[in-house]
Amino acid sequence: xxxxxxxxxIIRTKQNIPKSxxxxxxxxxxxxxxxxxxxxxxxxxxxxxxxxxxxxxDQKNSFYGKKSAYFxxxxxxxxxxxxxxxxxxxxxxxxxxxxxxxxNEQGATSTILDRTVFIxxxxxxxxxxxxxNKPVFYVNNLIHLNNGNTTSAEIRSTTSIPRKxxxxxxxxxxxxxxxxxxxxNGYEKAxxxxxxxxxxxxxxxxxxxxxxxxxxxxxxxxxxxxxxxGEPYPSKGYTKFPKVQYSDETKLASHxxxxxxxxxxxxxxxxxxxxxxxxxxxxxxxxxxxxxFRGDNRKFADSSKDEPKWIRLEDPKxxxxxxxxxxxxxxxxxxxxxxxxxxxxxxxxxxxxxxxLTPPDVPTxxxxxxxxxxxxxxxxxxxxxxxxxxxxxxGYMIHYGVxxxxxxxxxxxxxxxxxSFAAIDGNETGSxxxxxxxxxxxxxxxxxxxxxxxxxxxxxxxxxxFSSHHERRGSLFQSGITYYFKISAYNxxxxxxxxxxxxxxxxxxxxxxxxxxxxER
Length: 521
Fold this sequence. Notes:
The protein is mainly beta. The protein is built from two helices and 36 strands.
């Protein structure tokens, strides 16, 4: 049997998508709804919204998710309504704007963000631009002075942005310290501090209804525009995948990864064995992958944490010796990015092969060998099953009833000469491969009804369902009744709880009539 659990898509480590903020555009939705994220913000601000959107969906390059937005100059832009947000008002809280970009050959001179407006011939607002591959942030009359005037500032980075490589640019509007800070990949590159005594604060014009334009004149890709209160995430916050964490206080390190967990699958029969598996990964340097398996003959939930236990499979060519036999089974794969959070292993495909333990065939040649109505004794013969699992610690059951398709009792043990009980194996005096034998009388029925609690019964018959507590009373052979008998075989894994299917179907019935004596008429 071959199975392919999991998704058909390539699976990687869960990405490091921000989960809080005012707005996050991950471009996983359609062009008209770039904010429709697969992992939406916990609390999305209604005061920030997309008015219009034009870009090309790029599924080959992305920082978050599976898509990014490609912009080709002024023909592609996104207009965001921000005037309803207090962050873009006269007295804003400190906030940050972060955007990962991927520039091409034409993107060396671009306008990434722009929110400017002319009021009485004076330019207000801000813009984030690229000049010769270096970020420049222009602040236009947002710094307020105590004489009622405003002033501007330029914040220039000296670090060039490489082409065809994702770069994260963040701008901090620090209204508490009256400063603007420019970050690249989480590291501070330039800032402007308005600390003079004449500075009263930072704010936008009171009646400014202008939009924030994303990619006003930009050649390249964007992914994951993030607007939120407070400072930008540190360098570890805007990595594509989780980065290793280290605590100076506890001196402990941690590194989050992702689990890919399959549903619980089932084989047709119980007591199956795992023969082999093959997992196809791409594993960049310093990333980590691991494969785990668990199984049980009893059904368990997908989300079960404790039982059955997970077993790590280290080598496809050498499976652990303690793997359980199972009918229900589940897989999971551990994926962890490199310590810097730049690369993730990729999980492409998975297949495995199991070997199932099939139930025995129906015994053949079931017949009456001897019959004594006076002793109410009947002996049966049948051909031995070929399965070694039946001959070795398995056995047979003889079922009887008063109608062809209604069995009222089961004979599953015989009494040995020493008084102990054993499975019905057909090995009696004079029996052979094609002539197994078992004799049943009323004593046999009583023995199967009333097995002493302390008596050890054969494997496969220990379940209390076999005992007198669950057998029908009053089903001793009676005169004047025709009884129907069927036979079944079970292998050494038969168990009423975990291996109930390891028994054959019942044979066709044979009938025996116990006549009434004259004195009974």
